[in-house]
Design brief:
alpha/beta, four-stranded mixed beta sheet, 19 helices, 13% strand
């Protein structure tokens, strides 16, 4: 300390100036020390879970199990059907991503595991016995954990960060609105300009059917919850109090609230919750590969499913069925595309029995499928539409329901009789959320996101099929635009699934994570829907990493077969 003061005085500084500089110097040293301590604590916390299994460096693997660059996808294949040699740059990046300091390894955190969150869609043991993966930063298609490790976010968060991380225009839109009007509601015919502007923009943007009104929600779940209330309100207004049942589909996902989880066709959303509620019925899942009969074409499969839907309607009584709800492409159920002529035939059935069609566009809207809305791709003419997720590129929570003219007229008339529409949320049409969503819509248009997805989708879809489609552990690769699902089965058969205790899907996801990529896993199906701003080189990297994960999985399956 004395030497610091003498050095400062020798430079012609006064005592007071010297002390000031000294204080600044000491504060900087203290801050650096605190930052170092925080980094070590974060590292130890993360490594406690990582070190439960050995890290595998790619340069230690046999050459036949290493990933290759895209230039060799059409070249020679191994016995597994997957090409072998990696590009030097990819191999270096993967190896470097696994290097962890021995010093940090020796300071593995000994604090109690777990955290205070009751975490959604998470098993209890995970939040009490392990440390979570803490994501601390995002940039483009990448996210970074609290240790600074970089991952490709191949699911765009939860199918939602369409414009990637840290888009400055979306951040500025939020900040500017916060500085102007951080909140006001939309009750009692009071509202804000961003809410009005966004409502108008959405009605103009949706082309398959002319929509008349927009109702704002906070998420896709409460958008679909709102759909049920509006449809019940509509039928009561028309003097049809029995017309209240909804038909959804097995494996559909429409949300996790009491009502929207009832619409969902996934058992984990129902178990121990006393769901689904009696109003929700479920018809066939339109997964051709898994459920078609021998020799049955896609068109014949669609006809059979449409006939089954009609039989269900007749069985329940057409006077009791209010609406049919469907995702253009089923997302969380496994990325299930509609078979040929499916929506054409289903729409004929519901129209025949005066049943409303609700399009759940929460995942598909705003370019994901290579069209602005999924309804455009499959010629769906809905009466109501649910949107969320990419509406704000997930930068701030917002959802919406689009209401067609004939439905809106009935609802408005009934609200006049009663005195008001008795439904809404404090944050319906939140001005900050609407401002961000408006900017997101501008970016989709200015950057021609739909055309970009159309142009880049073949590299994703065809590239993935070329890279892993011949593997004997890959049953089906399915997808369109920038969404894809890969289902793992034994001998490529939908009827020869792996034992659940093998947890093959989880194993694949873990291999991707080791290499620096996060994916979605449900059972033995892996799903990816990267940000829509992704480049072809970044798609190459996704495919390269996933091919390596499949090669490792082939070896794992071979070992498990020997053990069983």
């Amino acid at each position: 300390m004395k030497s610091c003061i003498n050095w400062q005085e020798s430079c012609g500084l006064g005592i007071q100036q010297s002390r000031t500089l000294l204080n600044i110097f000491l504060r900087q040293q203290k801050q650096q020390k605190q930052q170092q301590q925080q980094l070590i604590l974060s590292a130890m916390s993360h490594l406690r879970s990582v070190l439960r299994r050995p890290l595998v460096a790619l340069d230690k693997l046999p050459s036949s199990t290493r990933p290759s660059g895209r230039h060799s996808w059409n070249g020679a294949h191994t016995a597994s059907g997957i090409t072998a040699e990696p590009s030097p740059e990819t191999e270096r990046n993967n190896v470097n991503s696994h290097k962890v300091s021995d010093t940090v390894r020796q300071h593995v955190d000994t604090k109690p595991k777990g955290h205070a969150m009751l975490a959604p869609f998470t098993a209890g043991w995970q939040s009490t016995e392990t440390h979570p993966l803490v994501i601390s930063k995002s940039e483009g298609i990448y996210v970074y954990d609290s240790l600074g490790k970089k991952y490709i976010d191949s699911l765009a968060g939860l199918w939602c960060t369409a414009l990637g991380g840290h888009e400055p225009r979306l951040i500025d839109a939020a900040v500017n609105q916060l500085n102007t009007l951080p909140f006001y509601h939309s009750f009692w015919n009071r509202t804000t300009q961003p809410s009005l502007d966004l409502s108008h923009e959405l009605l103009e943007l949706f082309k398959p059917v002319k929509m008349a009104k927009t109702f704002f929600t906070n998420s896709g779940s409460d958008a679909n919850d709102t759909q049920v209330k509006l449809v019940w309100y509509y039928n009561n207004a028309l003097g049809r109090p029995r017309k209240k049942k909804f038909i959804a589909r097995q494996k559909a996902y429409h949300g996790s609230t009491l009502v929207s989880a009832s619409l969902s066709g996934l058992t984990n959303l129902h178990q121990s919750f006393d769901l689904p509620l009696p109003f929700a019925l479920h018809t066939d899942c339109p997964h051709y590969w898994r459920y078609h009969l021998p020799g049955e074409s896609e068109e014949d499969f669609s006809t059979r499913l449409a006939n089954n839907l009609e039989s269900l309607i007749i069985k329940e009584g057409p006077e009791t069925i209010a609406a049919f709800i469907a995702e253009p492409v089923m997302g969380a159920g496994g990325v299930i595309l509609p078979p040929a002529t499916y929506f054409e035939k289903v729409q004929e059935v519901v129209k025949k029995y005066d049943i409303l069609f609700i399009a759940d566009e929460v995942i598909c809207a705003f370019g994901r499928l290579g069209t602005m809305f999924g309804c455009e791709k499959y010629n769906i003419k809905p009466d109501l539409v649910s949107i969320a997720k990419a509406l704000s590129s997930a930068y701030i929570p917002i959802g919406a329901v689009l209401v067609s003219q004939h439905v809106a007229e009935v609802i408005l008339s009934e609200s006049n009789k009663i005195g008001s529409l008795g439904h809404g949320f404090t944050y319906s049409g939140h001005p900050v959320a609407c401002a961000v969503a408006l900017e997101a819509l501008k970016l989709y248009k200015e950057r021609n996101i739909v055309d970009h997805v159309k142009g880049i989708a073949p590299a994703f879809q065809d590239g993935m099929r070329r890279a892993i489609g011949n593997s004997q552990v890959v049953g089906e690769v399915r997808g369109t635009g920038l969404v894809i699902g890969v289902e793992f089965t034994n001998s490529k058969s939908p009827n020869d699934t792996f034992p659940s205790k093998w947890a093959i899907g989880t194993y694949v996801a873990d291999q991707c994570k080791e290499q620096g990529m996060l994916v979605r896993v449900v059972g033995d199906t892996i799903m990816m829907s990267p940000p829509l701003i992704i480049t072809e080189q970044q798609i190459d990297n996704i495919i390269c990493i996933f091919r390596e994960a499949v090669l490792r999985t082939e070896k794992r399956v071979a070992e498990l077969n020997l053990e069983s």
